[in-house]
Design goal:
alpha/beta, Arc Repressor Mutant, subunit A, 2 domains, 7-stranded parallel β-sheet, 12 helices, 53% helix, disordered C terminus
Length: 240
């Protein structure tokens, strides 16, 4: 039996052992350094709401494992042998859109960040993150919240240029909603902060999506960040 097939069998067996218990967030870790993979696995598994179902050292192995295991979140390093992590992310986003990709990298260069956002990753975190920040980020992307490391956010702000004409299509209230949406706020949180009703906020969100020509909150947040339509991008997980 192959290693990946054994993983699938093990996961099936475990699912039979605990009927009625809440299903943990299933995570795959992809990094070419075994020490990083093992350390990340141990950090995540301190939290009982998370389960690392596989750790892989290459993008090719990861593609096979993700296709078979269909994890909730894949934590992916950029610097991988043969196929890099951004290529892997692009393939996974195209083939398995329900799998949320969280980039965990040492790179904070604008080119890498912009490419990752264009691909449609669910978050971008730096390896200088603490254990809590990583766990919070995994939980956030699993819940559909777009996540950016604070240092990554600062890098994007430094690269700010003139926003495209899209920003002129948004009303001041829609711009405020987009700003909060890009920070990972829920409709309820936006309603409280803007002192509006939930349905009113939902209407503004729908208008923003339509004007930006996107179909989801994550796409709207990514579009806003790439085109510098917001001043404080991303659900920030760093406090330093």
């Amino acid at each position: 039996m192959s290693e990946i097939a054994a993983l699938v069998t093990a996961q099936f067996d475990e699912s039979l052992e605990a009927p009625g218990t809440p299903r943990p967030i299933r995570v795959i870790i992809v990094d070419d350094h075994e020490l990083v993979r093992e350390g990340t696995r141990q950090l995540l598994e301190r939290d009982r709401s998370m389960e690392v179902v596989a750790t892989l050292g290459s993008a090719e192995e990861a593609l096979d494992a993700i296709g078979l295991l269909l994890p909730d979140v894949a934590i992916v390093d950029i610097n991988l042998p043969s196929m890099n992590g951004l290529e892997l992310a692009a393939r996974v986003v195209a083939a398995h859109p329900a799998v949320r990709i969280l980039i965990l990298s040492a790179y904070d260069e604008h080119a890498y960040i912009a490419q990752a956002l264009e691909i449609g990753v669910a978050g971008y975190l730096l390896k200088s993150s603490s254990a809590k920040e990583l766990i919070d980020a995994v939980r956030a992307v699993f819940e559909g919240v777009f996540v950016l490391d604070r240092q990554v956010s600062k890098q994007l702000v430094r690269q700010r240029d003139v926003a495209p004409h899209t920003v002129g299509l948004l009303t001041p209230r829609e711009t405020a909603v987009l700003e909060l949406l890009a920070q990972g706020r829920t409709n309820k949180q936006m309603a409280l902060e803007l002192e509006l009703g939930i349905r009113t906020v939902e209407g503004y969100v729908s208008n923003v999506l339509a004007k930006l020509g996107v179909s989801s909150r994550t796409e709207a947040a990514t579009h806003a960040i790439i085109h510098h339509l917001v001043t404080s991008p991303g659900h920030v997980v760093h406090n330093r």
